[in-house]
Amino acid sequence: MIDRLKPILSLLEQQSVPKEKVIVILGPTASGKTKLAVQLAQQIDAEIISADSRQIYRRMDIGTGKDLTEYQGIPYHLIDIREPGAKYNLGNFIADFHQTHQSILKKGKHTILCGGTGLYLQSVIQQTPYALIPSITGFKESLAGKTTPELMERLGAYVCPLDFQIDHSTNKRIVRAIEILEFLQQNPEFKPKQQAPEALVIGLNPPLENRRESISKRLNERIKSGFLQEVEQLLTEGVSHDQLQYYGLEYKYASLYLLEQVDYTTFFTKLETEIHRYAKRQMTYFRKMEKDGIKIHWI
Fold this sequence. Notes:
The protein is an alpha/beta fold. The chain has helices at residues 2-14, 33-44, 90-106, 118-125, 139-142, 148-155, 171-186, 208-224, 227-236, 241-246, 249-258, 264-291; strands at 22-26, 46-50, 76-77, 110-115, 199-203, 296-298. It has twelve helices and six strands. The longest helix has 28 residues, at 264-291.
């Protein structure tokens, strides 16, 4: 890990990095992002903002890989800020990030944004003001069950701002685009105000074989550390199986196992496969960020 720190420190010496400039550390799951962020924070007097869509939830510790002991006293933010089952969307994250970033600046410190949720990262690195548009009560539910062609037909009925980029990859994201356009139609006076901070983006890209080995090793460690017991406790507290499965990956397959819909061997092998696939999807999204104009310094 120390070998990864040296090129970052060298990069910081070469570039102007005022405290207002956010240092971003991204990479696929199990690539060592948190350890590296902590080492860097110790060197430059920084605080860390997490960009992980599941680590916001309290008591979902082992399955989300919080590893809070790794922070070694470095202040961290946007971890353990919601109860399991509470709604938290991209707009919430953007608002929370900007508020936290400003509070760190007032302390005279650098900000490190660290995580693997590409959409969260890109939404603060690049200006995405439309993500701050609030949800319309009952609107998404009114479009539930619509087919992709039906949603696309509805989408085509709106006048789309030139700077609003629509993600057509899933029905869920098409529905959100329709909701945003409906809001703009109802609120023509709305003017986007979000200002993206300057950012230095550092990416971790371990060799595929190393990545796969790290993922498998970490999964075994999480199971031994009591992950299934953590899920059982969440169920005891009132978190439903539907909610667990919504969080995906570890929690989805743990739920299926505890419901006795899969045996232990199937639970473990399917989960391991899905985490490998997830890491691949993360890397695909990071490459998309580069195509969208974000410079990533890979190490």
